[in-house]
Write a structure and sequence with these properties.
- The protein is of the alpha/beta class.
- It has a single domain, classed as Flavodoxin domain (Rossmann fold).
- 34% of the residues lie in helices and 18% in strands.
- It has a five-stranded parallel sheet with strand order 2-1-3-4-5, sandwiched between helices.
- α5 links the parallel β4 and β5.
- The longest helix is centred in the first third of the chain and has 15 residues.
- It is globular, with a radius of gyration of 16 Å.
- The relative contact order is 0.20.
- The mean pLDDT is 93.
């Protein structure tokens, strides 16, 4: 089983990365191969709205560091996306990555029940952390992005780990609860 892990925090040792690392460590111990990408270390731009991926090409035509990452997701069985909440949403470079996944959508994506160019049924693990301890704050973020990713990329099984009240003040402080959840989800996916 091939797992692609995308880390969306601008901080190298972030809370979302710590949870993703636990998931990946467990998955590797069960025989999976894992490729981890720190999005903040890449040089890329968001979608330019050129529509070339709908007219001239079946993939994004931008030639930057994200091109190889987008290509690698095609062969992954499981995609892990880990990101914090910044200013009431995901960080900008993570959103730029998500915008570039527009290239996975077929030209007739609005009118078909199968809009994604990716093979259907890939598994998604979405990890979202927030320093705010109130569960109702930012509850829309995992719902919104899960719905988008399932529709646009054709994900099948989707697991969400929502780390609430972790690492307030830019410290890494993930409770065992979230690490255990990551471990259990990895065990359920990589059997």
């Amino acid at each position: 089983m091939k797992i692609s892990c995308l880390l969306g925090s601008p901080r190298q040792n972030s809370n979302s990365a710590a949870i993703a690392a636990r998931f990946c460590e467990t998955a590797m111990s069960l025989g999976a191969t894992v490729e981890t990408t720190v999005l903040n270390q890449l040089s890329y731009r968001g979608c330019q709205g050129c529509m070339s991926c709908k007219t001239d090409s079946d993939k994004c035509v931008q030639k930057d560091d994200l091109a190889e990452v987008l290509e690698s997701l095609i062969t992954a069985d499981v995609i892990v996306m880990a990101t914090p909440v910044y200013c009431s949403d995901v960080p900008g470079h993570f959103k730029c990555f998500l915008d570039r996944t527009f290239s996975y959508m077929k030209p007739d994506y609005r009118m078909t029940s199968s809009p994604s160019r990716l093979p259907l049924g890939k598994k998604l693990v979405l990890i979202i952390t927030q320093g705010a301890p109130a569960e109702e704050l930012f509850a829309d973020i995992p719902q919104r992005y899960t719905a988008f990713l399932r529709r646009s990329m054709g994900f099948g099984d989707t697991c969400v780990i929502r780390g609430i009240g972790v690492g307030a003040g830019a410290t890494v402080g993930v409770s065992d609860q979230y690490l255990k959840e990551a471990d259990e989800i990895a065990r359920s996916i990589v059997k």
